[in-house]
Design brief:
single chain, 312 residues, two-stranded antiparallel sheet, 12 helices, 9 strands
Length: 312
């Protein structure tokens, strides 16, 4: 039996797809196991891991940007594994910015005691820097999810310059006297940024120039993605993926949206099978609400895609 789809599934023999390199990713390496570029490619689709690591290694700071569902956070963590050559979560630290996140939580600040008064507490960046300085031969990573959801000027404060590769190792006194901060060269900062959320704060230009940017895009046209999906032998899935290619094309060409609003491929991961009901549920309850949000002022277009996707 053959699958039909304009995405590349149509001409793919199921046996060939099962034998493909991508379908060989039957398991993720366990904690502490060696992690190679091949492991990265088996887990992350449509992404150049070597280029991402080159950018991060050179600049020390990297932002992975992209539309909803392209796997930014997932890719960031796998990039850390690849950079270390081993799956080691003890060297990876995560934080998520939001509108209430502050300098005090990120670097250092005063916090109230239950019994009254205040105490000085260091934040995640300060703590990670101390761990990295104590182990100069190791690689340490701070992943900042949704970096542009916070007020980066306020959160980073006076330490903007310290994250630059030229100033790694320099020491600066924070606004709390007696608390000095040094960002070592073996600490790498990875931010993720959603390109489709109109409500997000524009990234501070002073911060922006200190990062490299790598854009993740939907992988529907990627051979590895199509090979992986081919193993499910699902006509409903093949038709849905064809529709996703066309939907993203229309979103990208819409002058009020653009490529940064294209819908990612991660919506289709994590399912043991793709029967008609499963595909219908993904389209109806995960993808179509986003279509309605995008084109809230274009009901005719929404209705057309409702029919195209088979939404009842």
């Amino acid at each position: 039996m053959k699958l039909r789809a304009a995405t590349g599934l149509g001409k793919m023999d199921v046996q060939d797809s099962v034998e493909s390199q991508v379908v060989e990713r039957r398991r993720t390496p366990k904690q502490g196991e060696k992690y190679t570029l091949a492991d990265f490619k088996n887990e992350v689709l449509g992404v150049d891991g070597e280029k991402m690591w080159d950018l991060l290694k050179f600049k020390k700071n990297l932002i992975l940007q992209g539309s909803p569902g392209v796997g930014k956070t997932f890719s960031a963590k796998r990039l850390c594994y690849y950079a270390m050559g081993v799956k080691d979560d003890t060297h990876i630290f995560n934080v998520q910015f939001h509108s209430s996140y502050s300098y005090e939580s990120f670097i250092v600040g005063l916090f109230p005691k239950d019994e009254g008064g205040f105490y000085l507490k260091t934040g995640i960046l300060y703590d990670v820097c101390e761990k990295a300085k104590a182990d100069p031969e190791g690689k340490y990573f701070l992943i900042i999810d949704e970096i542009n959801r916070g007020n980066t000027s306020s959160i980073f404060g006076e330490i903007f310059s310290l994250i630059e590769k030229e100033h790694r190792g320099d020491t600066m006194t924070t606004k709390y006297k007696g608390i000095d901060l040094c960002i070592p060269p073996n600490l790498y900062i990875i931010g993720t940024m959603n390109t489709a959320d109109r409500g997000l704060i524009a990234l501070d230009y002073a911060l922006r120039r200190r990062f490299s940017f790598y854009t993740l895009r939907p992988a529907y046209a990627d051979h590895a993605f199509n090979s992986f999906m081919g193993k499910y032998q699902s006509r409903a899935l093949a038709e849905a993926l064809t529709n996703m290619v066309d939907l993203n094309k229309e979103i990208s060409e819409d002058e009020t949206l653009g490529e940064g609003f294209a819908i990612g491929h991660s919506y289709w991961f994590g399912y043991p099978q793709f029967d008609t009901e499963t595909v219908h549920n993904i389209l109806t309850y995960e993808i179509f609400p986003l279509v309605e949000e995008y084109w809230f002022d274009k009901p005719d277009k929404v209705e057309r895609w409702k029919l195209r996707l088979g939404i009842m």
